[in-house]
Hints:
The longest helix has 16 residues, at 52-67. Helix content is 26%, strand content 33%. The chain has 95 residues and is α+β, with helices and mostly antiparallel strands.
Amino acid sequence: MADVTTVVDAVDRSRFEWVIDGHVAVVTYRRDGQTLWLDHAGVPAALGGRGLGSQLVERVLHIVRQRGERVVPVCSFIAAYIARHPEHTDLLARD
């Protein structure tokens, strides 16, 4: 079972971090003003197959929404997640 913790924005490392059962799952990003370029979502192999990657992305998108920011999903996993959950398409940065 996942630790009862929250995803935190480790600004100094340009990534969101979620500590789960002693492992760290991350979403790395690059910031351009109010837009986050979400480069990579990673869950340690020891935690694979538990749907934690999707939970991580959901939590990150919730943080982004609360802060009034937008995203560019560079990571294919994150892009596919948003495509499967159209309630998050309003977070996509527009040209």
